[in-house]
Inverse folding.
């Protein structure tokens, strides 16, 4: 028999305590939400220490994502990929920043608690975002936990910027590192 | 309101005409199936010209995948990523080649009709495969269609092989190119 159905979910706690109606105007507000999601994910035991959110041109949430690799036995279910898929499903836009006729809809932003791994890096190339906001660096992830970030193009920032995706790093880096450090001390799974 | 559910499917035709019980012992048999899936996907209008399949240590199908980007408005729904997610869901193994205690289960193979793009490249690093079998090259995809393969590490083969993933290319390359060429002439969407 061939399996033909994939079903992925966010944990139930996302429906409590996140203000999905308010704007998150500053870059720091957006990354703070991503880090808060990463923290809540490990507190709830609902996945790894990673959170992300996609914001529309009005600075409001289009989607959020957290790592769901272990609960779903799915190596694709990273925070960034969950957020991309949920934003695309909500907007029914395969490129989040283009409408049905291929016209720009205004800047789309992904905020993530840690630098995207090799898989989320590639997903970021296709998702249709204009801005990528990052908390912790890869070296933070790899030094504070046993997670591996995987192989990237040497100039990974330049390759994104060549495609019109602006990258901003080290936003609330210390707060993002605190969550990673706490997860590293818990000795949880590192998929 | 926050979206929290993702549902992805293969087209209904996968349940007809694919022998999921027989072994596919040779590399060429495995890639031929991936190319056949790519061909059927464009004939049915159910997605882009890409197919893939995951095989277990007994050379039987663990899962198949085809490109479902446009039907699902989901840039993650590439052939390889669909195949990985479906094989992981079936086996409940987050690394396809490791059991619950982290012991190797025997070689796991992905066959794909075309070289993985940057996103599927990253997904391949985490999925837990031992062998990657490829039909058409990236330059075939980019010369015969308007699809873009995205930025990869300079030595992308070497980076996989350093992680224990053996790469074999140009298997039935001409047959894979034929499907790409036909899709290119159709002028279908290139997401």
């Amino acid at each position: 028999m061939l399996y033909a159905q994939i079903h992925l979910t966010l944990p139930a706690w996302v429906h409590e305590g996140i203000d999905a109606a308010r704007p998150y105007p500053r870059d720091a507000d957006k990354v703070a939400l991503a880090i808060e999601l990463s923290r809540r994910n490990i507190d709830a035991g609902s996945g790894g220490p990673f959170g992300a959110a996609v914001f529309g041109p009005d600075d409001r949430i289009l989607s959020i994502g957290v790592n769901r690799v272990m609960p779903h036995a799915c190596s694709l279910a990273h925070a960034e990929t969950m957020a991309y898929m949920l934003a695309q499903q909500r907007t029914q836009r395969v490129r989040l920043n283009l409408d049905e006729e291929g016209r720009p809809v205004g800047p789309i932003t992904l905020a993530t608690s840690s630098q995207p791994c090799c898989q989320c890096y590639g997903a970021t190339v296709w998702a249709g975002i204009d801005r990528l906001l990052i908390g912790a660096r890869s070296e933070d992830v790899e030094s504070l936990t046993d997670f591996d970030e995987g192989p990237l193009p040497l100039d990974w920032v330049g390759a994104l910027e060549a495609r019109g995706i602006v990258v901003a790093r080290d936003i609330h880096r210390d707060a993002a590192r605190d969550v990673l450090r706490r997860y590293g001390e818990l000795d949880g799974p590192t998929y």
Notes: The CA atoms of residues 25 and 155 of chain B lie 29 Å apart. The first helix of chain B runs from residue 27 to 44. The two ends of chain B are 28 Å apart (CA to CA). DSSP finds seven helices and six strands in chain B.
